[in-house]
Amino acid sequence: MPELQRLRPDHAPALLAFEEENRAFFAASVPDRGDDYFTGFAARHAALLAEQATGACHFHVLATEDGEVLGRFNLMDAVDGEAELGFRLAEKATGRGLATATVRELFTLCTTAYALTTLRAAATLTNTASQAVLTRTGFVPTGEKALLSGKPGLAYVRQLTGQAPAGRAL
Predict the structure, then answer these.
(1) Which of 12, 58, 148, 160 is the most core-located residue (most Cβ within 10 A)?
(2) What is the pLDDT of residues 108-144, one digit of tens each?
(3) Which H or E run contains 48?
(4) What is the pTM (predicted TM-score) of this model?
(5) Dihedral of the CA atoms 144, 26, 82, 100 (nearest 10)?
């Protein structure tokens, strides 16, 4: 069973492989990261770890027992109990409920480790899989339009206070 892990320096090789192997799959529904992301990956990874150390962001990977990265689950711009959720799952890991289960697991970390009470998220209009995960995990559309690297999307919000245990309705 894959495990949600806080981003560490030793995740870099597996994380780069994950991004390279799934680049075309991701680009079908979210804006492509561009070639510079891959050529400057080591510096970018170090910058993420430095940002995480400040407490402004909390980066996670979903990894198998042998260290393969199946997904990324990030909490960005954590301020005053709120953060922005972003996630992506490897193509070969889709359709098994992993994204939904991992987002629910992240809710526990949000409230117990990161003192977060509200999550925001956005998904492009073409990313119906992410929209479904957000809806299944209790996010509601805000009615605001979002632009994600120039692509139209929907904004969502999820209150974490008073939530039921992962996977259970209130």
Answers:
(1) 58
(2) 999 999 999 999 999 999 899 999 999 999 999 998 8
(3) helix 41-54
(4) 0.90
(5) 100
At residue 103, φ and ψ (nearest 5 deg) are -60, -40
DSSP state, 92? G
Backbone angles phi, psi at 57, to 5 degrees: -140, 155
Distance separating alpha carbons of residues 95 and 27, to the nearest angstrom? 18
Distance CA 26, CA 86 (A): 13
Beta bridge partners of 157: 120, 140
**Could you tell me where the beta strands, DSSP code E, fall in the chain?**
3-6, 58-63, 69-79, 82-89, 118-124, 140-148, 151-159
**Residue 162's pLDDT band (boundaries 50, 70, 90)?**
low
Compute the distance between CA of residue 161 and CA of residue 73 in angstroms, rounded to an integer.
Answer: 20
Judge whether 57 and 49 are in contact, CB under 8 Å: no
What tokens appear for 88 in the block? 């992506």
In this prediction, residue 143 carries a pLDDT of 86
Q: In this structure, how many other beta carbons lie within 10 angstroms of the beta carbon of residue 6?
A: 12
Contact 27, 83 (CB under 8 A): no
